[in-house]
Write a structure and sequence with these properties.
single chain, 8% strand, two-stranded antiparallel sheet
Length: 551
């Protein structure tokens, strides 16, 4: 297994940046998915966790008065990968109160006890159970009474994201509407806490890198700073109260964890990075959207763009002509209609793309002279093992001697099989994230197909409609920006043919319009004229007149 100083020997995808020498890859079993899509897009890191990790990095840069999005290696067109590190405040007291304390609610619910008794009972019990934590600041901070303290805590708990997962208290998180509400994902050690990668495996860092390499990064940096990082709304103020002295970022105590490196993103620029950043700019530019809602839209849209990125990169590496569109079936029911059948087929085809891309990536190496010139003798088998270790961070099963090694072709096939069969592969990430953002629907006995949730539809409208936009234009924007097909016009092939009957696609489009009407995003002027409207836009009063897309 090569160490980090041998990263220069790794096989790269076409046009990829060199892997930084400080990038640790020792935990990898095979260098295929990371070489194509980056290190790392991870199925168990939900879109909310992805956004939180991205904001942890941005919060640090803002606190240190660094440029939020400096570009590649701090320069607009640098040839080398970004080298960034960041620190995250532990916020141990607040996290304990939110996710580990069991006594506040019990004490608050006891009848007959006055306020002084309640404070005494809770502080005494907590000091006995958790002697390393000091909560003496809470009583003066909540001079309005223990009940108000308990209510504030319960309110903050309602802001938890992904709250139905069975996670330890150090891996639970709040909606990040302020700096005081950010926590690192950590594991407990004898000497304190250490950064853990169980659920935060750099998918948020990949999101940051995509934004950092976009053409919109300067404008985006201004919006992120003003709308998110400088925010000190009611939620954040309550969190700071509960947090106590830990809210002071200048404390000399070791209340931080370090993230010494950042993830690896292979390509210096892609159009997908720009599309992602445009959606961030669009959402954050609309000051009428409350920050809590804006963050949810950003989480969904960021996850959607990373799903599309997975498919687009797979198509490119596999040498395909283009990406087949995502056909969105609008009923969300388990009926076996033609649009649903096509949508399910497209999902199956998209799910196979990563495997095809990995095959093509490995083939690009086997076409090189250093592999083609290897023979089949014992020394050749040993050389093949060394070469695969250097280029792909992979090794076959241990054998007693070089004579026991499989032939080079078998070693290569075993590596390819391992790349396709590993847990948490990029195909799993594609499916998991598509479900989480609301793009993919699964029904028992009916299968899995693309059918958007109301939350995703709302995010797409708000990101693409300024004031009002004719429905057909809106569908055209979705096709162009997200590879999404709903109605007949977008479904037509270059030859003019339709993949399913015309009437079924028209019905699918009508169902989309009905769903948008229920959500409050449609204004129909006549039988032939319907407009998608953005109720948060300043141009809302102009509904009925086409407006430009934010794209």
């Amino acid at each position: 297994m090569p160490s980090s100083n041998a990263n220069s020997e790794l096989w790269l995808s076409k046009g990829a940046l060199a892997v930084p020498d400080h990038q640790k890859i020792h935990a990898l079993t095979v260098w295929c998915d990371p070489a194509i899509w980056g290190l790392a897009l991870y199925d168990d890191q939900a879109p909310w966790f992805t956004l939180i990790e991205c904001l942890q990095l941005l919060t640090f840069r803002h606190r240190e008065d660094k440029a939020l999005f400096p570009g590649l290696d701090g320069k607009p067109d640098a040839p080398s990968h970004e080298r960034q590190s960041y620190r995250i405040k532990l916020n141990t007291n607040l996290r304990h109160l939110l996710f580990r304390d069991q006594e506040v609610g019990r004490v608050a619910s006891r009848g007959g006890a006055n306020d002084e008794v309640r404070w005494h009972q809770w502080l005494k019990r907590t000091a006995e159970d958790f002697p390393d934590l000091d909560f003496s600041y809470l009583k003066p901070a909540f001079s309005d009474g223990f009940t108000h303290f308990a209510e504030a805590l319960e309110l903050m708990r309602s802001a938890e994201v992904e709250q139905f997962g069975q996670k330890r208290w150090t891996s639970r998180h709040l909606q990040p509407v302020g700096e005081a509400m950010l926590f690192p994902d950590v594991k407990m050690k004898d000497d304190g806490f250490a950064l853990d990668r169980r659920f935060f495996q750099r998918t948020g860092e990949i999101l940051y890198l995509m934004l950092n390499r976009s053409a919109e990064r300067e404008r985006l940096g201004q919006l992120v700073a003003s709308r998110i990082l400088k925010s000190d709304g009611p939620w954040n103020r309550i969190a700071r109260r509960l947090q106590g002295p830990e809210a002071d970022a200048t404390t000399d105590q070791p209340k931080w964890v370090e993230a010494p490196t950042i993830g690896y993103l292979p390509l210096a620029h892609l159009a997908r990075y720009d599309e992602l950043a445009r959606d961030w700019v669009s959402i954050l530019s609309q000051s009428a959207i409350p920050l809590e809602d804006a963050l949810e839209f950003l989480a969904r849209l960021s996850g959607l763009h990373q799903v599309i990125y997975i498919a687009e990169r797979a198509v490119d590496v596999a040498g395909r002509a283009s990406l087949m569109p995502f056909v969105l079936e609008m009923t969300g029911s388990a009926r076996n209609n033609p649009v649903q059948v096509l949508s399910a087929e497209r999902y199956k085809a998209h799910k196979m793309l990563p495997s095809q891309a990995v095959e093509a990536f490995v083939e690009s190496f086997t076409d090189m002279p250093e592999w083609r010139e290897i023979g089949t003798g014992p020394m050749d088998c040993s050389h093949a093992k060394t070469l695969l270790s250097k280029r792909f961070a992979w090794a076959p099963k241990k054998t007693a001697s070089a004579a026991g090694l499989p032939p080079p072709a078998e070693q290569l096939q075993a590596m390819l099989d391992a790349a396709k069969a590993r847990n948490h592969d990029i195909g799993s990430t594609f499916t998991a994230h598509a479900k989480k953002v609301g793009l993919l629907t699964a029904r028992q006995r009916a299968g899995t197909w693309y059918s958007p949730s109301d939350g995703l539809l709302e995010a797409l409208v708000l990101a693409n409609v300024d004031g009002a936009m004719e429905l057909g234009q809106f569908l055209s924007v979705l096709r162009r920006r997200y590879h999404v097909v709903v109605g007949p016009e977008e479904a037509r092939t270059r030859s003019g043919e339709l993949p399913v009957p015309l009437e079924d696609l028209r019905e699918n489009e009508r169902r989309l319009e009905e769903r948008l009407r229920v959500l409050g995003f449609i204004n129909r002027k006549s039988d032939d004229c319907a407009f998608v409207v953005n109720p948060f836009s300043a141009g809302r009063a102009m509904a009925g007149r086409p407006a430009h897309a934010t794209a």
